[in-house]
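Quick one, tokens below:
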């Protein structure tokens, strides 16, 4: 489900960047151009995805042990139905354990994907 903030729009085909919001327990969705949070959600699909970790932010988190937003899933919003099937592989990022987003099973770094399912505070790729 998506909750679009008052006065904002989230359209199919819109370029967005997403991060896990530890305060709301959902994903925060920013417009890629303005960097303004336009929505929160717990289930959606992105296409043409880049996984970005900002190194300076990562270093700050590691040095201070204080969490700050510095890692994003960037892609094109789709309103496709969010069905988690066996085709999807879980990915994760932990600034204290990994330098990049990684495939949970192989632990190989993930930088790009054709598709990313963001569901219930987790990300999956095909």
């Amino acid at each position: 489900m998506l909750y679009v903030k008052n006065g904002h729009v989230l359209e199919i085909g819109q370029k967005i960047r997403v991060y896990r919001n530890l305060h709301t327990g959902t994903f925060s969705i920013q417009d890629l151009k303005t960097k303004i949070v336009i929505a929160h959600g717990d289930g959606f699909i992105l296409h043409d995805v880049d996984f970005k970790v900002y190194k300076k932010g990562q270093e700050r988190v590691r040095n201070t042990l204080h969490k700050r937003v510095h890692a994003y899933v960037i892609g094109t919003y789709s309103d496709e139905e969010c069905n988690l099937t066996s085709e999807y592989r879980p990915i994760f990022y932990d600034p204290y354990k990994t330098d990049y987003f990684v495939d949970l099973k192989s632990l190989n770094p993930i930088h790009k994907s054709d598709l990313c399912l963001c569901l219930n505070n987790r990300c999956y790729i095909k």
